[in-house]
Amino acid sequence: MAIEIHTAEDLYNIRDNLSGDYIQMADIDLSGYSNFDPIGDFDNPFEGTYDGAEYSISNLTINKQDESYIGLFGDTREVEIKNINLENIYVTGEDYVGGIAGYVRNNVSIVGCVAKGTVSGEGGYAGGIAGYVMDSVDISDCTFEGTAEGDYYTGGIAGYINGNGNVNISNCIVNGSISGSYSGGGIAGQVYSADISACKATVILSGDNQVGGIAGYIYAGAIAECYSSGKATAFDYYGYSGGLVGYGYCDITNCYSGCDIEGAAYIGGLIGYDSGSSITNCYSVGKVSGADSDIGGLIGYASGNISSCYYDTETSGQSDTGKGEPKTTAEMKTQATYIDWDFQNIWGINRLVNDGYPFLKVFEDGGEEPEEPENPYILYFLDTPRVTIEPPSANVVTVISDSSEYTAREAGISDDEVIHRIVEIDEGNYDVCRTVAKQLLSRWGREQKSIEGKIRLCQGLDFLKKVHIYDAEAMVDEDMRIQKLVHDVIEQTTVVTAGDIILSDDELLARILDSI
User: Fold this and answer.
1) d(CA 69, CA 104)
2) 150 touches 124 (CB < 8 A)
3) Residue 171 has pLDDT above 50, yes or no
4) Strands 101-105 and 130-134, how do they pair?
5) Tell me: the pLDDT tens digits for 224-260?
6) Count of alpha carbons within 13 Å of 20, Cβ hemisphere only?
7) Which residues contact 321 (CB under 8 A, 6 or more apart)?
8) How many structural domains is the chain composed of?
9) H-type alpha helices, 336-448
10) How far is residue 488's CA from residue 96's CA, in Å, rounded to a whole number?
């Protein structure tokens, strides 16, 4: 049975049993520790499990500039760490510095963790989530927001990855700034033989050389279905700066970058220096500004296989060929440009999404919020419409299957505010339970409102279009999306249903399970 962690003291005392299984039971404030000692070190690593249960751990301060293996956990080995939510952290050390863990090795899983704040390595190996990663490690569904800095090997998720083909980074998000003299990346600073997939980074990157929106340097492994935006600047003459990768030798498929790139030589919208990669179905649109040689709209220096890759010659300011095909902005926003791309399963294109450029379907938001006209229609009903309101019914949801369970919880609620609902499903692993719990909480945790009424015939309305609903008698004056339209040409009316689709609990659960 898991050991419960309720207080800052409980958390600190994990060091007395480094092989225990722990679950956090409340939000924890560490402001009482002016210089927190990491849990575990190289000689005595943490080897248990920790489930943060999506409670917060705030105000973690570690200031040990002359020490290594620094983070909430200093060194971890053969562990599972999940659902930790670090807020307002300041973590600094010499080498192997991470928000969640400084050193991660040998059969470790880090899932669903968030770190917000500053992580700094006075030497190197600094990452927002993990500093140094090696041998059979999975990091997934993690987010870093803030600043990561170090002298060398600095990344938003991991500073340095030594994968030996057994490290996977997936579904991770970084928003912030990354800086260091050598090998800085939005997701990872330097990578040897690891796979990075379905990750996105919106970052301001700066360093002397090997600077990339996803990876500063990568040798072997793969990057798939990732994108970056922001700016990457390399200061050395041979800067190796790219929107996705600074210096690379790997497989890169179905990726794009909107990073603006600055440097002297070996700089490109997607890759600065390609040392023999296989690059397929990728594009870039960022501005590329270089002062010397080997500058490209897509790739600065290329020696690998490039297939069906493109860059925007207008936004990049470049016109080179043979290293990706230059296209006009209009062509880049046209599906027919992209030969043999999978627009059924992987890519989408819509003038309202991602500024009209192709977007990756793995990201629900398509890279950017749709730029819709504000309230193109104001609806006035002929009669008082029917308004249905369902109040919030839960702020904690636990989903239990035959083999696993997961609890989703709204942040910031106290124990006496908890409205807990438990749902049982026939089968499903941890990921299924997690998905179902989060989707149920997203519905049950807020008020749902639906409105139905007649307006004058309006066949120009579209399903899911945003409209403004106004009816003084029904006390409705707000934006909603259309969910159903029924036109009656004889009566010259349209019945509009807008707002939320209100389902019974069984119907909602069935729809969620069908979508997984």
Assistant:
1) 10
2) yes
3) yes
4) parallel
5) 999 999 999 998 877 899 999 999 999 999 999 999 9
6) 18
7) none
8) 2
9) 430-444
10) 68
Distance CA 60, CA 133 (A): 22
Residue pair 255/269 in contact (Cβ under 8 Å)? The answer is: no
Does residue 507 belong to any structural domain of this protein? yes
**Residues 312, 310: Cα–Cα separation, whole Å:** 7
Q: 299, 334, 291, 290: which is closest to 320 by C-alpha?
A: 299
- Rounded distance, CA 34 to CA 17, Å? 23
Check: CB of residue 256 under 8 Å from CB of residue 332: no
Residue 123's domain spans which residues? Answer: 1-180
pLDDT (mean) for 472-492: 80
Q: What is the pTM of this model?
A: 0.73
* Domain boundary residue, one of 159, 180, 201: 180
Indicate whether 121 belongs to any domain: yes
Nearest to residue 313, comparing CAs of 300, 293, 330?
330
Give the domain-ending residue among 152, 180, 208: 180
CB 476 within 8 A of CB 467: no
- Say if CB 42 and CB 69 are below 8 A apart: yes
pLDDT of 463 reads 65
- 158 domain-assigned: yes
Of the listed ranges 80-89, 391-400, 488-497, the least confidently predicted one is 488-497
Within a domain: residue 260?
A: no
